[in-house]
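S1.2 Input.
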Amino acid sequence: MSDSSIKSSISQDNSQPTLTEKLENALKNIYCISGLGADQRVFQKLKFQGYQPIHIYWLEPKKGESIADYAKRLTTQIKSDNPILIGLSFGGIIAVEIAKQIDAEKVILISSTKNRQEVPFYFKIFRWLPIHRLLPAKLILWISRFLASWFFSLRTIDERKLFNAILFDTNANFMKWAIDQVVTWKNELIPNNIYHIHGEGDRIFPYRFIHEDFSVKKGGHFMIMSQADYISSLIHKIVDLRSDETGDGKQ
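S1.3 Output.
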């Protein structure tokens, strides 16, 4: 081996982290849990200055698995003590279930629901008439694609393209399982330090059923994309709150 090759090898072996890598390692993690069937692309417009977003990935549900057991399996992806969690839509329900099992510094729900009282009464009809369990998983996915534009208040061509791309990649069996978990969810316990951001125009979880901490005017179920700058500002407001600023950490 030539001297130049040896020097190159030594240089590579003793390479130091770049400034970007050092900054990323110094940032505090925020764990993001996407909505039903969605993935990390729904968070792409949010700004996390000063924080490092870590995306929780969906796992294949086991046969007959409860939502509590499923949430417990997802906790293996969380490496921080007292983590900050952000849950979108169905991901918010999962964030609640995770926070019931581990201590979380803050849990931020976006376009979601905290307990059974906030689930619309007409969802509960499917507990007694579980039509969704009889339908093929792929048919449920097709119906979701057909109704998505209205239910999710998709406003632009880019939003429709992104949403369709996400649905195209969605596991149909996971979606069928997740829908069943939503309509049969009977949670009564709201963990500490939950902060709820909700749109006044949400058509999945209508605003009138929700006891939110921060409302978003004209915010639909997909406002994390359509009003990303404002949602980002609310997230920063919440994560920067100290628990001693108000009685229960909320305002």
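S1.4 Remarks. The radius of gyration is 20 Å.
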